[in-house]
Amino acid sequence: MVVSGGLTLAGMGLNAPAHAAGYGTPTLSLSAGYLSGAVGATGDPVVTVTVGQSGADASALTVAASASTKSSVAGTGDVRVTGTGATRQVAVAARGRGYTDLTLKLTGLGGKSVTKTLHYAASGAVRDAADTRYFTGSSDASAAVDVGGGHVVVADDESNTLRLYDRSASGAPVRTWDFSSQLGVSKEIDIEGAARVGDTVYWTGSLGNNKDGEYKADRNTVFTTTVTGSGASTQLTVGRSYKKLRDDLVAWDRANGDRYGFAAATAAGQAPKQIDGFNVEGLEFAPGSTTTAYIGFRAPLVPPASGGKALIVPVTNIDKVVGSGVKAAFGAPVELDLGGLSIRDIRKNAADQYLIVAGSWAADDNSDPYALYSWDGVAAHAPVKLRDLPTSDPGGWEAVVEVPDLSAPGARAQLITDNGSADLYGDGTDAKDLTHPEWKKSRATWFTVTG
Fold first, then answer.
1. How far is CA 316 from the centre of its chain?
2. Which one of 94, 200, 253, 278 has the fewest beta carbons within 10 angstroms of its own beta carbon?
3. In Å, how far are 21, 156, 300 from 8, measured between CA atoms?
């Protein structure tokens, strides 16, 4: 067929497929614009990519990394894209510590394409990398409670947010809860300890002054949450709170001759993390009890000198204290020989086998020794050192997720670090001060704790 001037339809391009000119501009969206990984890591977090183009089947679209601003951290060849439909997964294998911007390019049909930038940060290699996972969204993990189904609720001592994580995977929390308004607090509680009995979890603040020696009322908070469900379906609801446990402890110590110096340690101007300071970091129930809680102290040591013992003060009516505001009653204090270290966490299992994370009382760079001890919860019985914990990597060991059967050989326990003061990416920035939550992270590592 011929039209005016002898031009054929083919010459005009009018016999091209009718849909060719109808391809729209491709669309590319990322589930997160920021991603953190680690050199040598297993199961690093991934980003979900959603792609589309009008007039085209999603399976015909391709996604690849097209550029990197610092290939020594991660180059285009270190980016792996999986999936073939409208949803893809992007994983990055870190080469070195630092930051890079990765350009992700979606190539569509009709010669059309679009790009997005993924801001990537890589922390350095660590020991036990194969047994390590990274919980992102927060760097200051301070207490943890197992909720079954392979999941754990983790507290943060820099905020009042509780986060639910998959224990086996690196990545963001499954869900979060911030009960600040319900608890009537406006500043950080400085959550440092947790203990579960039945479906109730007790959480305690550090009860001490802040690092500048100032009294902050919100830190004198103990509260409960109720657990429903398990695993990824876990839900928490806030229960009751009590805001005078510090006062009760000081009054009890005064009535017993100022044995531990609580009054002096909580005075204005006194920093909590001193060898004779006042700082709570552990909470667990006594053997066979649902009403007596062990309060484990990071400071003071007893006596407050090198080689001193770690201190536990039992609260014998914790259920009534938090449940109805009854003044705390105390049992005989327990002093444990942890080789001159103090309590950073204490956790037990249903058989009343305890694990104690022992560390320094000092507010240092976390390079001081850490060790793991077993104990049976009986005051007259000495704890037994199981192993030293590595200190060559960033972060301080702060939490035990759950206690395995310590009578079984090869038992393993998962511990979590507080990375808040760690320079994860080599730029001199403390992790707690990073501007993007995806780059904040704590490290969770499985250790063999019995021979």
1. 30
2. 200
3. 19, 73, 94
Element (H, E) at 298: strand 293-299
Local structure of 227: helix, strand or coil: strand
Q: In the chain, pLDDT over 90 holds for what percent of residues?
A: 94
Q: Is the pLDDT of residue 21 over 80?
A: no
The DSSP letter of residue 256 is T
What percentage of residues in the chain have a pLDDT greater than 70? 95
For residue 115, CA distances in Å to 55, 65, 72, 78, 82 come to 19, 9, 22, 18, 17
Only one residue has tokens 């609260």, namely 315
CB under 8 Å to 289, separation ≥6 — which residues?
Answer: none
Strands 412-418 and 79-82: unpaired
Q: 119: part of which helix (H) or strand (E)?
A: strand 113-123
Query: How far is 274 from 272, CA to CA, in rounded Å?
Result: 6
Find where tokens 């006042």 sit. 278
**Which residues on adjacent β-strands are paired with residue 360?**
none
* Percentage helix, strand, coil for the chain under 3-state DSSP, each rounded to 5: 10, 40, 45
Q: Give the pTM.
A: 0.93
Distance of alpha carbon 428 from alpha carbon 421, whole angstroms: 10
Query: For 110, how many CA atoms within 13 A lie in the half-sphere containing its CB?
Result: 18
Burial 331-347 (b: 16+ CB within 10 A, else e): eebbebebebbbbbbbb
* Contact by Cβ (8 Å): 266, 252: no
Torsion of CA 43, 79, 34, 54, to 10 degrees: -120
- Classify 107 as helix, strand or coil: strand
Q: In what order do the strands lie in the sheet with 175-178?
A: 141-148, 151-156, 161-166, 175-178
How far is the CA of 234 from the CAs of 176, 225, 228, 251, 312, in angstroms?
10, 12, 6, 38, 31
Note the pLDDT tens digit of each residue in 77-128.
Answer: 999 999 999 999 999 999 999 999 999 999 999 999 999 999 999 999 999 9
Cβ proximity of 95 and 75 under 8 Å: yes
Helix (H, G, I), strand (E, B) or coil at 172: coil
Cβ atoms of 183 and 160 closer than 8 Å: yes
Going by C-beta distance under 8 Å and a sequence separation of 6 or more, which residues neighbour residue 14? Answer: none
Say how far apart CA 152 and CA 347 lie, in whole Å.
14
Amino acid at 157: D
Banded model confidence at residue 4, pLDDT cuts 50, 70, 90: very low
Phi, psi of 152 (to 5 degrees): -140, 145
